Amino acid sequence: MPKSAIPKSPQPPPHQRSGVLSPQNLAARGAVPSKQRLAAGPVVTVECIENIPCNPCAYACPRQAITIAGSLTDTPAVDFDKCNGCTLCIAKCPGLAIFVVHKGYSKTEATVTLPYELLPRPTVGTSVACLNRAGRAVCKGKVVKVLDTKALNRCAVVTVAVPKRYWNAVRNIRVGRKGAE
Ligand code: SF4
Ligand code: SF4
Predict the structure, then answer these.
(1) pTM of this structure
(2) Which residue's alpha carbon is at the smallest distance from atom 7 of ligand 2?
(3) Which residues, 6 or more positions from 38, have their beta carbon under 8 angstroms from its beta carbon?
């Protein structure tokens, strides 16, 4: 068979090749709130685009803002207008894929609220390194809130204030001596 007749296997999508989701991937999947909704106050972003058998998020939201229609392996859909940014869903996600962003936190800063399972926990007022989806430090941030109760099942929920332009980049933090460098 001539080479040209051999069917090419389909290319995996970019995030599967790199292992990292991009804002573009997420926007294309409808996972990024609109400018208007972001301006209205804190809101969830569910960064889960693989068809995995999982659904705690669909039961976590008291306002039914997150739904998984159809099969267990369908990806979650979010009604951003139902979400009030309460953060209750964050620690329920075993994939650490749920965040709450508040783009209008202050004139110069946004907040990102994220799941944090490592020890030591960060403390309010400390400076931490803020990491992007690839785990690379992109800026410094200040911890403004830490929720770490038994009900959260060993997953703390940490809110960090970051320079506003990083609201859609920061998705993790590094705590400790290196974090404050
Ligand atoms: S942040 Fe609160 S209101 Fe928004 S989806 Fe999560 S649990 Fe629901
Ligand atoms: S709980 Fe997390 S990993 Fe599971 S489907 Fe929901 S967002 Fe995805």
Answers:
(1) 0.90
(2) 48
(3) 101, 103, 104, 167
